[in-house]
Amino acid sequence: MKTQMKTLIRNGQIITATDNYKADIFIDGETITTIGAKLDMEADVTIDASGKLVIPGGIDPHTHMELPFGGTTAADDFRTGTIAAAHGGTTTIIDFAVQYKGESLLQGVDNWHQKAEGKCAIDYGFHLITTELEDKQIEEMYTVMDEGVTSFKMFMAYPGVFLVDDATIFRAMSAAGSRGGLICMHAENGIVINEIIKDALAKGHTAPKYHALTRPTMAEAEGVHRAIAIAEMAESPVYIVHLSCADALNQVRQARDRGIPAFAETCPQYLFLSIDDYGDGWDGAKYVMTPPLREKSNQAELWKGLKMDDLQIISTDHCPFCMKEQKELGKDDFTKIPNGAPGVEHRVSLIYNGVVENRISLNRFVELTSTAAAKMFGLFPKKGTIAVGSDADIVIFDANKDQTISVNTHHMNVDYSAYEGKTIKGVVETVLSRGSIVIDKGEFKGKSGNGQFLKRGECVSI
Ligand code: URP
Ligand code: ZN
Ligand code: ZN
Q: Which residue segment(s) compose the domain that 353 sits in?
């Protein structure tokens, strides 16, 4: 019989979405079994967390490891990407599998199982990007849900690649919503955007900054409005991914004020970076992501949305492409630059700086980076909190130390950092994934392959 390693974390300040107190945590095998003051229990490993915050492992519900996109493939695979995530205090990712046109939904999920299996250093789940859903495929959608893939992403952008029409969105929302599933929407009017792009290229506007200048905030706001309206007609909830600007946020806000189950995430890049980062030159390719970076004035609005619960979750949309050879595909034409940026490693620490800057509370920081995603995507209370019976996914976080983000020290498999030289407060010191130490004082001690696939339950228990 397998002997269970017993671990005791002593004297930490435990922060959950609702609590803030000093206690010890006893872990038996993979599970938290006791929490209390000055526990007198025998353990194989004792970790002193005095002076540190002890928080639930981060959950990043929006990553694209190894995604074939824009004529190339995202530079992190499930091994490098999950190791980088662990370094940054994330112990669960939900990645986007893809059902390509002509493929069955099950095939799409299966393909991603093959990519991820045996490679992940932390636990992982899948959403399914759905590019076709005829009536006859609805049963298959339910089968996919029974296999633990209970959320689906659909695109109003990328015509000819991922875009689906409104009928397909309505069909998917009606079907998924009736069974506790959730449609995640990439809400941007890609058809209008393509017309704006044609016009820009005709004028010889080929530099990276034109990626942002051809995707107006109104195109995103229209997409969000339409997604919510379709969800309302389908009597289903909807989750807007990577919301980037105040115009789009206002659509979510208005719907929520009417009691509509509309939810949304934003990402650190929209909180810390802006359209100014594109500059006029080639370096701006680092920030070619969709939606693009926006005017700085949007940042304060997004923080307000996070504080007031009009935005529920912070994901990364981690989709890294190297400048060399990958972003370079669009050297002479911004439309050929693969869309996406790295971020999985620094989400937790970056968002902690929202606490430092008094934008959100400590509890809200935990909620936004872990708990809310667990509840939204059917993982709570196994994941997303520190409680008796929960998986021992735990981060020991030194809030008093600083770190300077750089390509020279990060662990993502990409040749630049979107935050190069930025100094932030807070360092992830030790990380446990189901009771095993994966990061020990900043060093990776885990094993790729130890991460388990998470069969998720019904969504939106929030
Ligand atoms: O630029 C982005 N966001 N790339 C990844 C694909 C997506 O739309 O999420
Ligand atoms: Zn998207
Ligand atoms: Zn994405």
A: 57-376
